Amino acid sequence: MLSEDAIERLSERLANRAEKLNSYLLIKLAEQINTIGNLNPTQAREILQSVKYGNDIREIAQKVSEMTNKNVSEIFEIFEEVIKHDQIFYKPFYEYRNLDFIPYAENKLLQEQVKAIAKVTAGEYGNMSQTTAFMRKDKDGNKYFTDVSKIYQEVTDEAITSVTQGRETYRTAMRRVMNQLADSGLRTVDYASGYSRRLDSSVKMNIMQGIRQLNIETSLEFGKQFGADGVEIKHHKNPAPDHSSNEKDGWYDIDGQQFSNEEYERINSYLNRPVGTLNCYHMVYPIILGISKPAHTEDELEADKKSNLEGFTLDGKHYTLYEGKQLQNRLELEIRRSKDKLEMFKINNDDEMIREQKERLQHLTAKYKELSDVSGLPTRVERLKIK
């Protein structure tokens, strides 16, 4: 089976592409704001009729389409890589039962099953990519969403209005706009509920959900074929407390454990958050009890649990390693936002805001380094770069 880090890297590959698209769109918007800011009122009105205005919108639509197509095309490749490693894990069980083991390259039924699950995931991803938008605020502070096909026009119209009507200084107005756009980032939106999430996070979640679905459906089939009588819950470091603590109010220590099929069904139905749902990173693998040696010894599992609970102290506050990872994620997001703002303000030659973002970046990166040093958590420096 693939390691937790390997699966993380696979999902990050697609999430990084979404982050590149976010940075590209923010730069395009900043460039348009800068262009309009250098025009007089008459010239600003004329830009509404310009060929460049239409071309830029078409270019943005093309970039969104390219990102979507590339990510969809890679979903099947990712699923194939996952299932090939999973199948190798099951080979000894087929040999133990004296059953024929058909490698993935020759297993047409398994290939079709993987394609079917990948197709569903790709379809969900395609639907998700069609609901991308930036979150804005109106003059009364109410949140609203502007989709990618309209955001360029909306920002252009705001910039032109600011230049021609002089309701407030252009720089002040556009600072507000650029801060809003960078803080929002490109998001996926459920317009029915009003809930939104950054696109890169949605992409990662979409792929992880697909991988979990792949694991559930294929492991069931493998288990039936070789007569599994139990399961092993794949261990991952620093899991959420409801899947790594003692039984209490819907919590159960499942991490890295083996259970009979009956025990697993009972425990999973008892959990408030069943395995593999609601962003759970655990995977379930069918086994033959007494034959399958656990991937981790009890001493190793206890050592990881103890390390997680001992955690670390930062700014006088204690954190578990699980909590530290959440804090690390938030700092990574703030660093990316600040870098986006810095690049946007550079385009507009806004020295005051450039200085402010540089100082903020210095503070955030220092805090990120301090967190990483005291916690020992691995860093993801590549996620902090402007692509």
Write a structural description:
It is a single chain. The chain has 387 residues and is of the alpha+beta class. 63% of the residues lie in helices and 9% in strands. The protein has three domains: 1-218; 228-300, no CATH class; 311-387, no CATH class. It has helices at residues 4-37, 41-46, 51-96, 108-129, 148-165, 170-184, 199-226, 261-270, 298-310, 321-347, 351-375, and strands spanning 132-137, 143-147, 187-190, 195-198, 230-233, 258-260, 284-287, 312-314, 317-319. A hairpin with a 5-residue loop joins strand 1 and strand 2. Helix 1 runs antiparallel to helix 6. The protein is elongated.
**N-to-C SSE series?**
HHHHEEHHEEHEEHEHEEHH
The structural domain count equals 3
Specify the helix fraction band: 55-70%
Strand order of the largest sheet: 2-1-3-4
Q: What's the end-to-end separation, in Å?
A: 31 Å
Quickly give the structural class: alpha+beta
Shape descriptor: elongated
